[in-house]
Amino acid sequence: CPSPNLPIRAAALNGLASFCLADEDFAANFAYHEEGLALRRQLNDTEGIATVLHNMGLTAFILGDYAQSMVRLQESITIYPEDTTSALAHMGLIAQETQNLPQAKVWLEQAYQQAMLEPEGWMQAFVMNFLADVLREMGDFDQATSLAQTSLRLFTELDDSYYLPDAQITLAQIALDQG
Question: Largest alpha-carbon pair distance within the chain?
Fold first, then answer.
């Protein structure tokens, strides 16, 4: 029986969507997010609306639907501009994937500036590594190396075995590109 408490139900739907994403059941993921989004709108919960839109954008990103991902991520920023670091970072990744390196740099630098306002942690390492990769592609090897090394240090300190190899690969690509 669904909870009559709408905020609890909206949070549960977000959780269900996350489980579906982990199981790669993308249709169910979007369905739970759509239902949760409707509840968040009914509750006038701007932070919750932005979170759902952001999560829908990430799912679209995973599926390679960059246009839909951009729409959802930009909507999340418009609705809740107080927390945009992850959305900006993912928009930067989309711009990089679509070979728009100048725009990727802009969005990743904005994400970097916001991430640096927080204590050292995962988001900083994540943004630093992807900004380093864009800078590498643009030929700014010194700045790319500095960011990738800091990203590697943070991922190591966080014992993050999932993203740690990304920083190692970025550093290796910089070395290869420099010859």
Answer: 62
